[in-house]
């Protein structure tokens, strides 16, 4: 398992568009992807779970990837989150 912590910097947070981009990219990997926020684990491949988590600008999250391609999955998650999903 590999993990990395982030602070969400999108002004609108992890709303529908970035959640869709994230899920679309994460489902390309065989590894399990979880987002942890406030002690709760969220399935990083489920748009409904991500939307229900209400991840806002400034939220502290940790992305955990576990599986055969975990390093690649975390690298892609890192690129997406740190780029602000292209919204900045």
TrEMBL record:
Main subcellular location of this protein, as a coarse class: cytoplasm
Protein keywords: Cytoplasm, Phosphotransferase system
Pfam families per the UniProt record, alphabetical: PTS-HPr
CDD domains: PTS-HPr_like (cd00367)
Compartmental location: Cytoplasm
GO cellular component: cytoplasm
Gene3D superfamilies referenced in this protein's UniProt entry, alphabetically: HPr-like
Keyword Cytoplasm: yes
GO biological process: phosphoenolpyruvate-dependent sugar phosphotransferase system
Domain HPr: 1-88
Domain of life: Bacteria
Stored PANTHER family: PHOSPHOCARRIER PROTEIN HPR, PHOSPHOCARRIER PROTEIN NPR
Name recorded for this polypeptide: Phosphocarrier protein
């Amino acid at each position: 398992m590999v993990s990395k912590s982030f602070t969400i910097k999108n002004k609108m947070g992890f709303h529908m568009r970035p959640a869709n981009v994230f899920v679309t990219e994460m489902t390309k990997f065989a590894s399990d992807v979880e987002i942890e926020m406030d002690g709760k684990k969220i399935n990083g491949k489920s748009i409904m779970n991500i939307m229900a988590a209400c991840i806002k600008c400034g939220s502290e999250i940790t992305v955990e990837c576990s599986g055969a391609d975990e390093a690649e999955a975390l690298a892609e998650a890192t690129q997406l989150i740190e780029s602000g999903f292209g919204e900045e």
